[in-house]
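Consider the following assembly input.
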Amino acid sequence: MARSAAPASERLRILGILSRTVAALFGGYAAAALASVCLAVGLPTSPAEAALTGMMASFAVMTGAVVWVFAAATALRAWIGIAIPIVLLGGIFLLLRMGHGA
Amino acid sequence: MKHGFRQSMAWLHTWSGLLVGWVLFAVFLTGTVSYFRPEISLWMRPELHGAAPNPRAAEVILAELQRRAPDVPSWNIQLPTAHNPVATAFWRDRTAERGFRLIQMDPRTGGELSARGTAGGDFFYAFHFQLYSMPPLWGRWIISFCAMFMLVAIVSGIVTHRRIFADFFTFRPRKGQRSWLDGHAILAVLALPYHLMITYTGLVTLMILTMPWAIMTNFDGQRQAFNAAVFGIEQPGPRSGQAAPLTPIMPLLDEASRRWQGGQVGRITVSNPGDANATILLAQRDSERLSVSRRTVIFDGTTGAFQSAREPDAPADETRGVMYGLHIGRFGDGAVRALLFLCGLMGTAMVATGTILWAVKQRQKAGALSRPGARLVEILNVGTIAGLPIAVAVFFLANRLLPVDLPQRAEWEVRCFFIAWGIAALHPLLRRHRRAWQEQLWTGAVLFLAVPLVNAATTHSHLGATLRAGNWVLAGVDLMLLVFGVLLGATARIVGRSRPAATPNRAAEGRRAMPALAE
């Protein structure tokens, strides 16, 4: 790590890393969990099969989310990029739920 | 994060790997040893080494259970296998210490076999996925968390090293930092499919704990409904209160074997034994299938009539079963498991070289003056990478050397393991870095090579006897220990030969060679 940076920008850099870490851990887990329940509700197989498929696929989703968070150019873009799929998946889940309830 | 995708992935690879590297090393090492869990469990109980298989073991054991525990809800029997010539029986018993009884039985007489108190191979297995001394749920969460870091480290590592094919053939020995980088890359690339497989399937084995939300949604939070649907675990019917003898077991085993095209029965569960409502469930041996989803068949316990059968044929369930089966590696013969063991060793060494590479890089950047963070990493490296093998060897030695009638003997074996590890973790604080490495690696090598000798001095199942008798189950454990000893000794020699820290010039050269990894 560069040691020569000025204290202010160094602090900003560390804050950026911390913020990304939070986005990766919690955002990544939320995206993975939501993807798993969307598959669980949405797949046309039996409830047990759909649940297992969603659970097994979830870790790939989380890995992709973490890679995205640390690859994005700025911490803000990382957060936006993780928030959009979470909102989308959450919406799909609610729609699927309603469709099943009706 | 910093300029470009590859640079940000190099950063992610470094930190996701380093932060949990020591836990991952311990998990990889104990997991690799756990491929021989049944063999180690048997090796650690020399009192059972005389047991011999018996084709009619099921009959003998059921008769003995009928005598010992006639009025219990169910009996669970694990039949002897090639890896383990002893039968195990389990039943609930409110008067027993923990509410159940678990005994080992001689397949020829049905008599209870008593062995020294030891956790056996189960210790490494339990350490591998729940860190043993922790509350199990905490341990499993920590392991899953670290496994997720591992998966991220693998994926970002693949991006960082674009030259995957060339890395097969690139090794520049005795070049300090560059050799560590090459070694790390070779170990990672050669067994890359294994590393990805073992990490992902490891996450899958604990997913019901860590990712339960799909079960919550589809089964309204009812775990039992999910278990019944997926694992076929169902509660047996009630007792009728009418006594009735059990049907002979041997014809049922033959019928199950016919249904499975020659597959053998590994487990028997008798529900409501001695009652008119008894059922007998037979499950296939898990060494015969890649998937752990078992084929089972249920018979009426008094008439022997076929009731139902379960063939795992649902795609997602079978996928889970195969992932689980790949992870625990109980399928296949000795050669397959030896290959898995080798891959596991490469994974262990990959993690080790990764954390060492970081420390070497810091030292070359800073010259002889290392910062506290770098010093901490160096201490943790020695205490874990050289220290944990010492603890493993001490565990094996404790199994042979602690008095057989010591109270709490199994707990003392584990204490010896942790005491040895604790000393190894503190030792590098007092020694110079290179000295600490050398002393601990040599200690580990000597201790591992000593185990087969101590085994020969304390039991009759030493290499001289087991090799001559072709007993590969027991000989394999001694040979595995010798492999560890030789590997540690070879590493100690390399550490002793290589020259002390590089000059600043060479450090700069090293940085130019790896623009992607230089931060």
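The interface with chain A takes residues 1, 5, 8-9, 11-12, 16, 148, 151-152, 155-156, 200, 203-204, 207-208, 211, 213-215, 217-219, 226, 229-230, 314-317, 319-320, 323, 519 of chain B (CB under 8 Å). Ask yourself how this observation constrains the way the partners meet.
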